[in-house]
Amino acid sequence: MSFSARILDWYQQHKRALPWRETKNPYVIWLSEIILQQTRVEQGTPYFFRFVEEYPNVTKFAEAEEDNILRLWQGLGYYSRARNMHKAAKQVVDLYDGVFPTHYSTLLSLPGIGEYTAAAIASFSENHAHAVLDGNVFRVLSRYFGIEEPINSTIGKKLFSKLADELLDQHHPGEYNQAMMDFGALQCKPKNPDCSVCPLRVDCVAYANSLQAELPKKIKGKKSRDRYFHYFIIEQDGKVLMSQRPDGDVWTNLFEFPMLETANALSIEDLQISSEFYELFGNSTIYPIGGLQKHVLSHQNIYASFYRMDYSGVDLPKKNSWNYYLLGNLDKLAKHKLISSFIERHF
Ligand code: SF4
């Protein structure tokens, strides 16, 4: 039996019943694919249902306020994905009269859609013959063929892409792509794949040479940068001061408490005598709440400290993005995880 026949055969017996597999609607497939990037299926599924219910078609999505999309997205992280979805939806409405495209090259021209997502939408919706290449597929190919080339090197990307195209079942590209992804997720798992029941075992290079733990290979990314954020909780008459994050940094446009970033970790005493603090808050007194929180993002480690501030007698700086919000209305603001978890714990 050929490689693809064995994968398809395995899929018939083991495929996952996922709600977005019930449809050929490219808009719904797009929603599911973007939501599930770097998110576990169990975590992403409720988001998928909420988005489909709130925005049943791409026109409704395009017409939505960005704040509402971000609020619905809250908890998934990688907020630029939600913003790109909004841009893409507007583009679909403006350029294609609200008809979601299914051609690979057109899909690639939309914000936030890369090769993987374009291949997934094109093949799942219309059976266009484009092979998907995600972490699951890389793993299966690398192990089965014993490929040592790193999956994120330039040569590796080309090599795996060519191989995936050659193996693609031209008659059932959509089903084959889903089968490869499930095979990687359920059978050829990252840790401890159960090779004893694998239909590829007889000629799998990794199995024959006990290389499962070594493959696939990956070049290590650049070192993460450490950042130190100090948040100040300033309340007045049942309201709390909130700030909206600027463009060009993490969490664009999301809400948080007024914040000072310092180049190094600072004790509360050092923070209070720093010129940056004095410039913003004069001689205000602050009291720590909770301990230091570490929040890991791709390429950044954020170390966050929270302080309650006694602001009386101080003219708070007039910053455009600072506004008071009723405590009861905080849940209407789109906030990043660090802030929403803090509010859950302390308000
Ligand atoms: S035999 Fe093991 S390593 Fe090889 S493809 Fe199957 S599960 Fe993966």
TrEMBL record:
Its EC number is 3.2.2.31. Pfam families: HHH (PF00633), HhH-GPD (PF00730), NUDIX_4 (PF14815). The keyword Transcription does not apply. Residues 35-186 form the HhH-GPD domain. GO terms for biological process: base-excision repair; mismatch repair. GO terms for molecular function: 4 iron, 4 sulfur cluster binding; 8-oxo-7,8-dihydroguanine DNA N-glycosylase activity; adenine/guanine mispair binding; metal ion binding; oxidized purine DNA binding; purine-specific mismatch base pair DNA N-glycosylase activity. Its cofactor is [4Fe-4S] cluster. SMART domains: ENDO3c (SM00478). Keywords: 4Fe-4S, DNA damage, DNA repair, Glycosidase, Hydrolase, Iron, Iron-sulfur, Metal-binding. The keyword Iron applies. It catalyses: Hydrolyzes free adenine bases from 7,8-dihydro-8-oxoguanine:adenine mismatched double-stranded DNA, leaving an apurinic site. Binds 1 [4Fe-4S] cluster. Adenine glycosylase active on G-A mispairs. MutY also corrects error-prone DNA synthesis past GO lesions which are due to the oxidatively damaged form of guanine: 7,8-dihydro-8-oxoguanine (8-oxo-dGTP). NCBIfam families: mutY. Belongs to the Nth/MutY family. This is Adenine DNA glycosylase. It comes from Sphingobacterium zhuxiongii.
